[in-house]
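for the record, two folds in this file. i put them one after another cuz i was lazy. first one right below, seq on top, structure tokens after. the second one comes after a little note so u can tell where it starts
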Amino acid sequence: MSGLARRRGAKKVVDEDEDGNFSGDSQLDTDMKGLSLDSKKDNAKKQETTEPYLTLLEEVLLVGLKDKEGYLSFWNDNISYALRGLILIELALRNKIRMINDPARKRFELPDRLIEVVDTTLTGETLLDEALKLIKNDKENLSVLSWVDLLSGETWNLMKINYQLKQVRERLAKGLVDKGVLKTEHKNFLLFDMATHPINDPVPKRKITNRILGLLTSRNFIYESDEKYYPDTLDWKYLRAVILVCGCSAANVLENVLVDVNFDARDQAFVRSEELLENFNDFPFTNKSSKSGLGMNLMSEIDKEVDQHPGFEMNLEVVAAVIFIFSKMDTII
């Protein structure tokens, strides 16, 4: 894990014009005009898919949240760091950031490879947009691990201490209140009052729980769609399910889903979660030997999703890099 300790910077390889838009050289512009037909096809393809109603961050928070009490465990030290990693994954899946496509990058472990901004269009999700602006405005290209550390406040660099995203869990909960998933209540804890956010709409958490259980306990994973929260047109729905499990494992909230599962199935589910962390912590994704025999159709479905997104390899390297960090959480927290 020595590679995770490295911190590197490099000059930006993407230029910005006066309006804050990214542009290449004139030859690239000429080439792009000649690809107008392909662009139309890409736009049509984008219209066929939809962005998720709930982000991966919100899903992991819901898994960790106590339904009636409306707050997270006070003893969970992992979830904050895991949420910062999921921010980078969300930005990568939405094609906002990607790994810099430099052949020399392969000398380094995935978390130590540098990322760049490719699209500055805001997502409408406050935390994602705040992180995107920080990455865009930084004068250096930093590594995936460096950004997870900076967004978490894990840095000795006083010049970048203000990069830490503040009150992430509370802001996520308030966002879920705005989306109708949670509600706000106030409870008295000894000497002070605290805002809590119990479940208001049980459907999303039930869907999330069923998806995790299906991925960890079923021989074949069947995606359960929902017209509002998880439509059939959802982009990267199978890969997102894997990331959800990896994020819950890293955030130390996976056990919340498995409390009602019998001992043998629960033990097997944890084995399967470790397999997913191992299979998806590198890119291209590989289906390494499985001892659990679960989710036999998963890799083929994800391969289809990858094939539907040509030229997305550098984005998926960011995803794999964060999952690599998740798989080593015990050594870096």
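(here's the note) second protein begins now
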Amino acid sequence: MAGKTKSMSQIKQLLLLKRQNVSNRKAAVQIGMDKETVNNYVRKVCADPLGIDGLLELDDPVLEHRLKGGSPAYPDNRFEEFKRLLPYLEEEMSRSGKTHVTLKLLWEEYRRDHPDGYGLTQFRYHYNQNALASSDKAPSTILKDLYVGGEKAFLDYAGDTLGYIDMHTADKVRTQSFVACLPASDYGFMLCVPSQSTEDFVYAITRFFEHIGGASRILVPDNLKAAIVKTDRYEPSVNRILEDMANHYGCVVIPARPRHPKDKSLVEDQVRLVYRRVYAELRNRTFYSLEELNRAVAEKMQAHNRKRMQHHPYSREERFLAVDKPGLLPLPQKRFEIKSYTDLKVGANCCIYFGRDKHYYSVPYHFIGKQVHVEYTRTLVKIYADGRLLKAYERDYSHGRYTICDEHLASNSREYRDRTPQRYIERCEKVSVELGRLVTLMFHTSRLPAEMHYRSCDGLLNLQRTTDPVLFRTACETAIEYGRYNYRFVRQLIDSRCAGVHQHDLLMPPEHDNIRGREQFT
């Protein structure tokens, strides 16, 4: 995989491992990345002023842009100094039976002389690695699984299925049984989901975390299609959605090796227990919804975890509360939502067309014609360009509609978009009192939508610029008098120079008692 650009989800997995003081070599093996590539990224991260915590808070495109250009590399001489001290450390530990010296005491002395040296975890790791390498025994005869509380969670699906009856079709619906196990306490969790898809797998993990009230530091899934894109003994490719979920909860994904059942033997045992204590006890019951089925499963799993273990004086739940619970990572405030990604081109209307929802979102006008990167979840749409966030929108599922930010539009576009009846009335009143009255009556007396008169207003304003002011005012007064509040009538009056408009006043007959006026007909 050397030489290929790594996804930021994978880089965040590396950052989480480094925050746990995992060595570069071990991190490279666990996340399936070339050792030299890991070294290069670690050097860039060490040189970055934000540090690991700051970089983890960045969105993926921003992080990629920050690391892509490269940072100055600073050599780390701690391991060279540690190698120089190894003979002294070995000699002191060989006499520990007499001197009662401990490795932690030696580390404290080491840190007094080397304040910038290794932390205790890395100090012990490098010492133990040296002791292991110099031992005559094979690793398989001296290594033993010792699980730290809250550190790992094994994940798998049961081979057999459960099901329920669909109340609308009366069909039997089969479900997949997600099983998780915390190895330090053997605490089990089970959830029935519709399928083994990535979405259902991630949903089941989030429900598992919420059930135990925290997140384990390491997830160990089997080589499922929902978790692993490409199976490999040494460098399995983890599904990007699963990596995003792990980054959200601050944990890392280290898949079990294919054809190595001992890597996840405890969850295999948990599946066998689930068959006996859940499947067998529910065999004669009928369920009519997935929720009803999962409620029954939760009751059986609770009884299973509270049952006294055969070779221990405590239950799995008691062991979980004592050992695993304190070691879990706190849950973030928001539940993880699956991210999807796409690249879209900004149209001439300053918007991208989000085809999934048939909806438009605005982008700053100087990005017209350029490609932007879009990340979206069920509730949010984020738009990036050149490694920076342009805008984050709440996702709108309205087909054919626009979500527009005024700052994104050019000045002429903003003016066009901000048209309202009141703005037209104010503009026309500044030109003349007569035009202001005409436009006010146009909007207030019409039954048509206000938008239908905007072009008439634009035409009147343009006509005013090229017409004699006296003639224009006369035409407006005449249009008001005749109740013809539109551009076409005013234009006809101006073209005729208002010929004959006031002749009716001259030709009116004199008032007479035998002649009825128009007031008689109103």
